[in-house]
Amino acid sequence: MNTFYNKHIVEAVKNRVCQHILDEAEQCLGEAMTYTLFESVRENLAEITANQPDTIVDNSTPEFITEEQEEIVTKKQVVKKEHLSKSQKRKQWDRVDGKGERPRGWDWVDIVKHLSQTGPKEESSLPVS
Fold this sequence. Notes:
It comes from Homalodisca liturata. This is RWD domain-containing protein. InterPro entries: RWDD4, UBQ-conjugating_enzyme/RWD. Residues 84-104 are annotated as: Disordered. It is a single chain. The chain is an all-alpha fold. It has a domain at 1-60. The chain has helices at 11-27, 34-43, 45-48, 67-77, 86-95, 111-118. It contains six helices and no strands.
């Protein structure tokens, strides 16, 4: 009963609903009972919720925030931006196009340069016919 939004229901009524469902479930053991349980609660809703007051009672206690807690909350909210110089910002804009995306092939490897760095492939000693 605490999983869903049932804060407005008094604890005595929650216990009564749970007890009613458990009693009905014991009677229907071995059968498909989901629909039967819902129908049983619907039929007996008036007597189950007889202890529920008409006005909403707030059972929650108000939270008192101390100054230390306020300071912690304000410190968590402050997020520092990364400060960049004009030249750093210019370099970032030069790397992207008008939409803020990098151009096609920006991360491609130059094959000739890569092969020249890795060196020539060693030939295997296969007999030539």
